[in-house]
Design goal:
Largest interface: A-B, 21 and 25 residues
Strand content of chain A: over 45%
Order of helices and strands of chain B: EEEEEEEEEEE
Distance between the termini of chain B: 40 Å
Radius of gyration of chain B: 13 Å
Radius of gyration of chain A: 13 Å
Order of helices and strands of chain A: EEEEEEEEEEE
Mean pLDDT of chain A: 92
Number of strands of chain A: 11
Low-confidence stretches of chain A: none
Mean pLDDT of chain B: 94
Shape of chain A: globular
Oligomer: heterodimer
Structural class of chain B: mainly beta
Number of helices of chain B: 0
Structural class of chain A: mainly beta
Helix content of chain B: under 10%
Low-confidence stretches of chain B: none
Chain lengths: 114, 109
C-alpha cells in the first residue's frame, strides 16, 4: 500500500496570509489526524477527522481549521498566519478497525512564516 | 491536566544498551506508543503496550507499568542508525494521543 502523502512539502508564507495543506491517507484508512511539531514542544494535536466528521480537537485557536472529503483526503487551513505558526505539520492516518490504533505519519509540510 | 515526561536528550555508545523512560498522567488509558523519528523525517511506529509487562521486538523492547504510570523503551546493541528522537505517546479515554516532547538519542562510536 502507498503511504500517507502530504502536499506541499515546503511552504513559505508571510504574516497575515492564509495557507491550505493537503493530506492523502493510506488507502482504506478513514481517520486522519493533524499535528503541529515545533522544536522542544513535541507533537501538538490539532484535530482528527473520521468519515468527514471532526471527531477530536486540540487546543488551537479558530484560525486553524480542517475538513475531510468523502475519499478520506483531508485539508488543513490556517488563516491570518503568525510567525509562531512556523512548524512542521504532520498528518497521520489510522485504520480504526485495528485494536491498537497505530497511526501512520506522512512526511509533513514544513511551513515557514516570515 | 495531562502530561507526558521523558528526558530531553541521552547519549550512548555504539554496541551498548540504553533505556529511555516515559512517565505519564492522563485522563484514562488506552495504550502507550513509542515512535522513532529521524531528523527531518516522519515518526515511525515502534511499539504498543496496553497491558503491564515487557514486549520484545528484535533489538527493541518496551515495558509498561500502568499502576506507576511508567514505561521505558530499551534499545540493545545500539547502532549509529539508532540516532533519532524517540517519542512516547499515550492514548487517553477519548482515544486521543497525548505526546511527550521526545528524547533525542545520540549514539557515539
Amino acid at each position: 500500500k502507498a503511504g500517507v502523502t502530504q502536499t506541499p512539502r515546503y511552504l513559505i508564507k508571510t504574516r497575515g496570509q492564509q495557507v491550505t495543506l493537503s493530506c492523502s491517507p493510506i488507502s482504506g484508512h478513514r481517520s486522519v489526524s493533524w499535528y503541529q511539531q515545533t522544536p522542544g514542544q513535541g507533537l501538538q494535536f490539532l484535530f482528527e477527522y473520521f468519515s468527514e466528521t471532526q471527531r477530536n480537537k486540540g487546543n488551537f485557536p479558530g484560525r486553524f481549521s480542517g475538513r475531510q472529503f468523502s475519499n478520506s483526503r483531508s485539508e488543513m487551513n490556517v488563516s491570518t498566519l503568525e510567525l509562531g505558526d512556523s512548524a512542521l505539520y504532520l498528518c497521520a492516518s489510522r485504520d480504526s478497525r485495528e485494536i491498537q490504533e497505530t497511526q501512520y505519519f506522512g512526511p509533513g509540510t514544513r511551513l515557514l512564516v516570515l | 491536566g495531562q502530561n507526558i515526561d521523558q528526558p530531553t536528550e541521552m547519549t550512548a555508545t555504539e554496541g551498548a544498551i540504553v533505556q529511555i523512560n516515559c512517565t505519564y498522567q492522563t485522563s484514562g488509558f488506552n495504550g502507550l506508543f513509542w515512535y522513532q523519528q529521524h531528523a527531518g523525517e516522519a515518526p515511525t511506529f515502534l511499539s504498543y503496550n496496553v497491558l503491564d509487562g515487557l514486549e520484545e521486538k528484535g533489538r527493541f523492547s518496551s515495558f509498561l507499568s500502568r499502576s506507576k504510570g511508567y514505561s521505558y523503551l530499551l534499545l540493545k546493541e545500539l547502532q549509529m542508525k539508532d540516532s533519532a528522537s524517540y517519542l512516547c505517546a499515550v492514548m487517553d479515554s477519548n482515544y486521543q494521543l497525548i505526546w511527550g516532547a521526545g528524547t533525542k538519542l545520540i549514539i557515539k562510536p
